[in-house]
Amino acid sequence: MKRVLAVMLAISLLLVGVSFSKTVVTFWESMGGDLGKTLSQIVDNFNSQHANIEVKAIYVGSYNTLQEKLLASAVGGGLPTISQVYSNWTAALMKSNVIQPLQTFIDNPQIGLSKSQVDDIWAPFLKANTWNGQLVTLPFNKSIYILFVNQDALALAGVSIPKTVPELIKDLPLLTIKDSSGKVIQYALGLRTTVDTYEVFLRQNGSDFISSDYKTATLNTPVALETLQTLVDMMKSGDVLGQGGYLDGPFGNGQIAMYIDTSAGLSYTSSSVGGKFAWTIAPVPAWKTQAAPFAGTDLAIFNTASPAEQEAAWEFVKFLLKPEIQAFWAIKTGYLPVTQSAIDTQAWKTYAASNPMANILVSLIPYGTSDPGIAVWSQIRNDVGTLVSDAMFFKKTPQEALQIAQQEVTKDLQQSQ
Q: In whole angstroms, what is the distance from residue 402 CA to residue 221 CA?
């Protein structure tokens, strides 16, 4: 009996030793609700397949909260092993020298990625995660701006989905419905009166807030003025519902026939519509080009973690890039698959066969554009956003708004140099 107890004790101690040998990876994330549940499933799947690693996904809160916590921890300590990051956060964190470039893992002959595996990631995402020729981060949850369309409303008005901005403008009065008293009961288009809307139309018009070398503000240009004036004119027409909040609700109750937002809102839109009418998605109407912005975050590993923790986090990143995991993530959340091989999986093919919108999203990826990876980008967006909102609510003329925006963004860029 004593011998049996001794053996059992030895086994117990061995098991305890095994559990203590696990490398723990702390993962700060901002995926709430159903998105968080899907991420938890992926994390549990990874942990079940890696007995020596435990990823602990820690929901930090909103993106703003996550940004504040990361930047504070970069100075005061306490960074996680891995985290979601926007590219401008990455730029700021690189200044603090706390990010471990993922290129160091990619190039490792034992645990790295082959050229074909790297090339499997869509080119626009690779570009957005590259600094000075090195992949510093890798894409995680990515969406793209699209046009949401009430097909029944367009059919009733006898119009097709607008493919260009001039077509969109022409269709606005045709899709606006008023009651006998003149009150609008269906607006043609919903627009969020935010910096994002201006950025979408400005990118489609072939420009941006700053020059391609990130050194000069470009808001005093004819194209910047044309873009903002067009948005203001649409607001003045009475055919556009403008508000700061999300538009899936007004779309679902028939208050607007179309609206522009990211593909991350697909599940919310589906819930809001609830089968009341036929709807679909389409590319944002083109202007001089087709260059709708991407939204969403990347993944960064921090060099404040031990080498073992960093390598364990890298194993998790590689797991997330697997075709079947990318397909699962995209199908469950509405985010874009960041690898091309994901759309070759049987799971994706089955999903896309009954969800044509999925193929529309994938077709847009090669044309998508990303925000500049500079630390001051958040401040630039804030400054431009305030002035764009003032113009869209007629508090300032487009000329006045852009003149001030040019000055503010110039200051932002000077302070960052």
A: 9
pTM of the complete model: 0.91
Q: Which residue has the higher pLDDT, 56 or 417?
A: 56
Q: What is the pLDDT of residues 259-287, one digit of tens each?
A: 999 999 998 999 999 999 999 999 999 99
Query: Are domains 2-136+295-367 and 144-293+371-416 of this chain identical in fold?
Result: yes
The domain limits of the chain are 2-136+295-367, 144-293+371-416
- Buried (b) or exposed (e) across 267-295, using 16+ Cβ within 10 A? bbbeebbeeeeebebbbbbbbeebbbbbb
SS3 (DSSP) at 100: strand
Residue 60 has pLDDT above 60, yes or no: yes
Amino acid at 337: P
Give me the pLDDT at residue 416, please: 76
Is 27 in contact with 56 (CB distance < 8 Å)? yes
Cα–Cα distance, 100 to 26 (Å, whole number): 15
Q: Which CATH class is domain 144-293+371-416?
A: alpha beta
The DSSP letter of residue 286 is: B
Paired strand residues for 28: 58, 83
Mean pLDDT of the chain: 94
Three-class secondary structure of residue 183 per DSSP: coil
Question: Does 32 score more than 60 pLDDT?
Answer: yes
| Overall average pLDDT of the 379-401 stretch | 96
Q: For the domain made up of 2-136+295-367, give the CATH fold.
A: D-Maltodextrin-Binding Protein; domain 2 (3.40.190)
127 contacts: CB under 8 Å, gap ≥ 6? 370
Which is higher by pLDDT, 17 or 134?
Answer: 134
| Contact between residue 256 and residue 186 where contact means Cβ atoms under 8 Å apart | yes
Return the residue matching tokens 């018009």. 205
Distance CA 322, CA 328 (A): 10
